[in-house]
Write a structure and sequence with these properties.
Strands 1, 2, 3, 4, 5 and 6 form a six-stranded mixed β-sheet that branches. The chain starts with 7 loop residues before the first strand and ends with a strand. It has six helices and six strands, in the order βααβααββαβαβ. The chain is of the alpha/beta class. Helix content is 40%, strand content 30%.
């Protein structure tokens, strides 16, 4: 990152940036270097447990073997519009981030609603309210894991 060390009070990496980085260790080290002491790093990752759950119900058993072997899975809508995502379980994410940061909190989130459909939007607004209240209890079914860490 082209920033001075210890420059930011908060770094945000929503949209599963950590999952999509080619080298998660280098990414975290660079983020850590630009953070001031007692600053926050907030982001999301793809949830391994949700991917496995979805693969079982869609009977895509081969993808589970790929996730297990590679620790990542190809996501996207076509060959030219796809990339690899590192999938994290809650415990793996906590362990990885705890190696760098003083405080690590993990939440389960499903961030996408339907903008053009008011009925679905209202439904997902209610889901979001429940997630905020109970998110630490629904790690396995959440589409993404949200992390909030302190340097």
């Amino acid at each position: 990152m082209p920033f001075n060390e210890e420059k930011f009070d908060i770094v945000i990496a929503m949209g599963d940036v950590l999952s999509y980085s080619e080298n998660q260790k280098i990414f975290i080290e660079k983020v850590y270097n630009v953070m001031k002491n007692n600053s926050y790093f907030i982001g999301t990752v793809d949830n391994l447990n949700k991917f496995i759950f979805d693969a079982f119900f869609s009977k895509e058993f081969d993808i589970i073997k790929v996730m297990d072997k590679m620790g990542k899975v190809k996501v996207g809508i076509s060959e030219n519009m796809s990339f690899y995502s590192k999938l994290y379980s809650k415990s793996e994410l906590e362990s990885f981030l705890s190696g760098y940061f003083n405080s690590v909190e993990i939440y389960g989130v499903m961030p996408f609603g339907w903008e053009n459909n008011m009925e679905y939007s209202k439904y997902w607004a209610e889901v979001l309210e429940l997630e905020i209240k109970y998110s630490k209890k629904f790690y396995d079914s959440a589409e993404h894991l949200l992390y909030v860490v302190v340097k």
